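Dear Dr. H.,

I hope your travels went smoothly. While you were away I took the liberty of generating a structure for the chain from your last submission, since the lab meeting agenda had it listed for discussion. I wanted you to have the full record in hand beforehand rather than looking at slides cold. The sequence, exactly as received, is reproduced here:
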Amino acid sequence: MIGTTLGVGGGLGLCAILKRYKFIELPSNVYPMTTLPIKVVATDVSVIALSAVVITLLATIYPSWKASRVRPAEALTYE
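The corresponding predicted structure, in token form, is as follows:
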């Protein structure tokens, strides 16, 4: 949760800086605009943050389940 919170905060902070100072310039012969447009959609940010948390939790379930099935005495005999 801390990593997701820091990531969302950092991403929103960078988007705010990009939106204000517009320091990413685009080639005028390729694009109809001169700088990179920034648009933050709250639902997109929420879905991405929630997906990150769910994927992280799911990735911890299998190793935890596997570790809970090992007997400590058996694990120590192979050490």
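Two observations you may find useful: The two ends are 34 Å apart (CA to CA). The chain has one domain: 2-77.

With kind regards,
E. W.
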